[in-house]
């Protein structure tokens, strides 16, 4: 006798399990494809911004003023325009011989900032965050990661919306010291300052009002060296005397040691210079020092505390200033302090001779 075949169908539980597994596999596959697309767009954004920056640098090297940002915001501080923030749009691209460059996803122009003299710039783009597979669901975070290229001017975007200000207030003006909007100024990919006009007043925006930024000056007067600024101290880049203040052609005063390093007592008729050969001014009051700086030109002043701390931080960050060659390991060199020879020494004009006349070398 033949028995009838029994067909076993999937139970409801088994069907639910199969559907769940297929859903997970499909979701993982979709998330992977999505992340690859995001990565490709982010790479394109970095390339776009680098291309624009390269063209802007070439334009500046020719001594030409930068094109003005388009459809943007005039940045006002203390009643004066200190900069412009807008788009690197069609006209800017055409001026530099480029085709139109836009974000690969939303077709928006990249943010472009220039100081009021059109000599410094900063570019801003936003990278997408990749999709995340968590507990069987894809998380499409709307948050973006800003990135910059160029000088450290402080590109502005709305802190909460993460939207550049030119997209929120096109063809307008913003008083940076009075605005109540919550803004973030992005100096670099890792340095930023957030707050309102009240918080910025007297700090970051006062620096912009002086047409300055945190990069080291591209050139300095003879006898001075450039120092990069420091965001921690809200100090822009500046030039500082390479040597002690000297009296040009000055004669030795009563305070001179008369042996190796002659010093000079300040006279009102002195011409103050920074060089290796003349006599250092050793006797001078603060009032006289202030007047001597002003006599050199309106842009000269006694070093400030923020400038001094910026110098210290810069020296601290150089591996060559540490006994081990690595920042934070060993001790920092402190100059001629071993009393051998037992006299103060004049600096060499050869910067490679850090141990000139000290009887020491880099290995002793």
Task: Record the SSE blueprint.
Layout: H1 12-61, E1 70-77, E2 80-87, H2 90-95, E3 111-115, E4 121-128, E5 132-134, E6 137-139, E7 144-150, E8 155-158, H3 165-168, E9 172-175, E10 183-186, E11 192-195, H4 197-200, H5 204-209, E12 224-227, E13 238-241, E14 245-247, E15 263-265, E16 272-274, E17 279-283, H6 286-296, H7 305-316
Structure write-up:
- With 364 residues, this protein is an alpha+beta fold.
- The protein has helices spanning 12-61, 90-95, 165-168, 197-200, 204-209, 286-296, 305-316, and strands at 70-77, 80-87, 111-115, 121-128, 132-134, 137-139, 144-150, 155-158, 172-175, 183-186, 192-195, 224-227, 238-241, 245-247, 263-265, 272-274, 279-283.
- The strands form five sheets. It has a six-stranded mixed sheet. The protein has a four-stranded mixed sheet with strand order 15-17-14-16, with helices on one face. Strands 8-10-11 form a three-stranded antiparallel sheet.
- The chain starts with 11 loop residues before the first helix and ends in a 48-residue tail after the last helix.
- The model is unreliable at 132-141 and 201-212 (pLDDT under 50).
Rough shape? elongated
**Lateral strand order in the biggest sheet:** 7-4-3-2-1-9
Number of strands: 17
Average pLDDT, rounded to a whole number, is 79
Question: N-to-C terminal Cα separation, in Å?
Answer: 107 Å
Low-pLDDT runs of 5+ residues are 132-141, 201-212
Helix content: 25-40%
Beta-strand fraction estimate: 15-25%
Structural class: alpha+beta
Element pattern in H and E: HEEHEEEEEEHEEEHHEEEEEEHH
Rg over CA atoms: 30 Å
Q: Give the number of helices.
A: 7
**The biggest beta sheet, please?**
6 strands, mixed
């Amino acid at each position: 006798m033949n028995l009838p075949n029994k067909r076993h169908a999937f139970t409801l539980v088994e069907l639910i399990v199969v559907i769940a597994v297929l859903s997970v596999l499909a979701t993982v596959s979709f998330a992977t494809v999505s992340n690859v697309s995001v990565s490709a767009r982010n790479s394109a954004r970095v390339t776009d911004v680098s291309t624009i920056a390269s063209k802007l640098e070439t334009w500046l090297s020719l001594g030409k003023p930068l094109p003005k940002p388009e459809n943007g915001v005039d940045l006002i501080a203390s009643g004066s325009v200190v900069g412009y923030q807008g788009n690197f749009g069609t006209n800017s691209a055409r001026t530099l011989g480029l085709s139109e460059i836009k974000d690969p996803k939303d077709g928006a122009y990249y943010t472009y900032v220039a100081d009021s003299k059109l000599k410094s710039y900063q570019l801003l783009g936003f990278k997408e965050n990749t999709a995340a597979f968590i507990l069987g669901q894809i998380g499409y975070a709307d948050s973006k990661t800003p990135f910059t290229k160029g000088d450290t001017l402080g590109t502005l975007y709305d802190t909460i919306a993460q939207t550049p200000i030119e997209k929120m207030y096109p063809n307008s003006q913003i008083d940076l010291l009075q605005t109540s909007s919550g803004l973030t100024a992005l100096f670099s990919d890792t340095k930023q300052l957030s707050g309102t006009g009240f918080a910025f007043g007297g700090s970051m925006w006062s620096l912009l009002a002086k047409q300055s930024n945190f990069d080291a000056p591209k050139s300095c007067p003879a006898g001075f060296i450039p120092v990069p600024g420091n965001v921690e101290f809200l100090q822009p880049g500046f030039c500082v005397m390479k040597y002690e203040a000297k009296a040009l052609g000055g004669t030795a005063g009563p305070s001179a040691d008369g042996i190796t390093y002659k010093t000079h007592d300040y006279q009102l008729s002195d011409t103050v210079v920074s060089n290796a050969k003349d006599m250092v001014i050793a006797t001078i009051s603060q009032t006289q020092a202030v007047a001597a700086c002003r006599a050199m030109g309106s842009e000269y002043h006694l070093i400030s505390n923020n400038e001094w701390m910026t110098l210290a931080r810069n020296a601290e960050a150089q591996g060559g200033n540490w006994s081990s060659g690595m920042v934070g390991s060993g001790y920092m060199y402190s100059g001629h302090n071993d009393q051998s020879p037992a006299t103060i020494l004049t600096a060499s004009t050869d910067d490679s001779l850090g141990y000139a006349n000290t009887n020491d070398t880099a290995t002793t």
